Amino acid sequence: AASGAGADMRTEISTAAAFVTRLLRAAGGGGEEQLRCFRECLQEAMREHYKHHWFPLVPSKGSGYRCIRINHKMDPLIGKAAGMIGLSHERLFQLLPSELTLWVDPFEVSYRIGEDGSICVLYESPQPGGKATKQLESRTSCKEEWRTGRSSPSKSYSMMTVSS
Asked: Which spans does this entry mark as compositional bias, Basic and acidic residues (predicted)?
């Protein structure tokens, strides 16, 4: 691994993988053992995919490469992890939002459901050096909506209540 990069991105990757796993669980996408395996496979795939594309000093560098995207095509990292527990791409499209974007960047993990949904932050930590991170208008309301199980309205997807 690159100079300790794996340790640096552990929180961001586990946050992102746990989020996708929660979406699958809410939609009835497998038993706990399957979902645990899915989460571990997804984390491993992300670690491998990101290891030379993680720049804590320039968090936005490589952002497009690290973006997980479902948009009429299944993201290959999610597809690979789902394949390990026997979920087909067809089944994933039934279980997950048809439009999902997940940004996994140093110090911040955020997502958007729908092409014009609001961007919600799942994880954020201050950058060393005290640079202010980009401000998002509806940050708190979005986090609250996720906790209560509501999501920004999307034409083809409604979030089910998730108990943590």
From this structure: 134-148
Contact (CB, 8 A) for 54 and 63:
no
Q: What is the pLDDT of residue 127?
A: 81
Q: Per the domain annotation, does 74 fall within a domain?
A: yes
Burial 150-162 (b: 16+ CB within 10 A, else e): ebbebeebebeee
The residue assigned the tokens 């199980």 is 149
CATH number at residue 106: 3.90.640.90
* Domain encompassing residue 68: 9-124
**What is the pTM for the complete model shown?**
0.76
Compute mean pLDDT per 10 residues along the chain, 164 residues long, and list them.
Answer: 56 98 95 97 97 94 95 95 94 95 96 92 84 42 41 40 44
Helix 76-84 vs helix 32-50: crossing angle, to nearest 10 = 140
Q: How many domains does the chain have?
A: 1
The answer to the question of residue 64 being in a domain is: yes
